[in-house]
Amino acid sequence: MKGVLSKVLIVIGILLILAAILWWAVAVPGLVKFPDNLDITLHYEGTQTLYVNPQTGAPLPSGQEISLPLAIDNTFKSIKSEYTSSKAVVEETTNISIGGQPQGSIKSVYVFDRKNMKNLDDPLSTYAGVKVNRAAKGDSYYINFPFDTKSDQTYQVWLNETNATYDIKFDKDEDVEGTALLDFSGGNTGVPLADYYSKMQQLPPTTTVGALKQEIKAASGLDLNVLLAQIAASLTPQQQAALATLTDATPIKLAYTFTNNRGVGIEPKTGAIANDYGTTQTIYAGPDASQSELQTLTQIIGGAVAANPALAQQLAPLQQLLTSPPPVSKVEFKQTADSVSFLIKGDDNSNSVESQISKINVAKVYVPWALLIVGAIVLIIGLLTGGRPAPEEKAGEKG
Fold first, then answer.
1. pLDDT tens column, 176-230
2. Could you please report the per-residue DSSP string of 19-44?
3. Alpha carbon distance, N-terminus to C-terminus of the chain
4. What is the DSSP letter of 232?
5. Which residues of 50-60 are buried (b: 16+ CB within 10 A; e: fewer)?
6. What is the DSSP code (8-state) at residue 344?
7. Phi/psi zone of residue 335: left (φ > 0), alpha (ψ -120 to 50 degrees), beta?
8. Structural domain boundaries in the chain
9. Contact, 176 vs 184, CB < 8 A?
10. Which of 78, 255, 365, 399 is the most exposed place for a label (fewest CB within 10 A)?
11. pLDDT exceeds 50 at position 151
């Protein structure tokens, strides 16, 4: 009987150990993935600064920029019916208020891998109703970073405004609400604004030669009409004819660029963006230097400068406008303290970071280690209770 019990315990112990190994190999990948019940609203506060007159589009004099309070509410909600075992589909609804005035809602849909969080190309992937392939630029993240985010890695973040990505890198460790976070920061500078974003923001696609002249004069005092009159006599007949075609009403295409700087605190185990602690985004606008009308003007002026180098200093404002376009608007915002606290610790928030950490710990740590430890104990007991077999009695010996 003693031997039977020992064998049973040994078998049970081995099975429990195998169950722990199988749990790690099979169950954990199936259980530890992005949830299909996400439903949370995050709040941000900041300011918007306008560098142009909102009615006319004319640049505002230095020191007369318009700054208004900015409030953003972002709601993230799983579209559970579109989920698969490997694909997450989340709708983001962004509501913006500037100066206390609602600006309407922007709806976007993100499709990404539930296990590694990388954006996927999918027909459902949109921004403000426009189809967006967020996987076209390589691996990128937006809603969530990967489980077990590493401080020694650089991650690419999707940016809707530019239809592209930017890099963020680890800065420092931080403790927020008793939770350890990894602070990452990064951004991009002077990236072309996406066409769909320019249209959504109703940014004017063109300006005029006359408006450019006024902008240069307001910024530096240079009267381009006077300068062109001064150099007219030195121009060839062909150049004079070309210059005559550029009237004040001649349209000039505008090129918009975008600069973005962002800092986020990431909880590494879940990959959750637990603290969006600072974002600055600026839109710049300047004449598109690639268009023929502007190239004609710059070539004429360039020829005049070559003949008379003294003109170079006077033309510096025009060169500045072409190489470093002025800002149109800037927004600066961060997640509110209450929103950060609710996201990390909210008692009634099933999507809180602490709640997700607990679920991951149960799946990755508590269950498999419990199986392994109990299995090892049962196995050892089985081996010990088996004892040694009784020695065989020698022939001729009496009991």
1. 989 999 999 999 999 999 999 999 998 999 888 888 888 777 777 778 788 778 7
2. HHHHIIIIIHHHHSS--S--EEEEEE
3. 24
4. G
5. bbbeeeeeebb
6. H
7. beta
8. 2-25+361-385, 36-350
9. no
10. 399
11. yes
Task: Give the span between the Cα atoms of 317 and 222, in whole angstroms.
Answer: 8
Contacts of 235 (CB under 8 A, 6+ apart): 243, 300, 303, 304
CB 175: neighbour CB atoms within 10 A?
9
- For residue 97, count other CB atoms closer than 10 A to its CB: 15
| Alpha-carbon gap, residue 67 to 60, rounded angstroms | 12
pLDDT given for residue 397 in this prediction? 52
C-beta atoms surrounding 132 within 10 Å: 22
For 104: left if phi > 0, alpha if psi spans -120 to 50, otherwise beta; the answer is left
- Separation between Cα atoms, residue 72 and residue 70, nearest integer Å: 7
119: β partners: 112
Which residue shows structure tokens 């986020």? 264
Please give the helix or strand (H or E) that residue 5 lies within, else none. helix 2-22
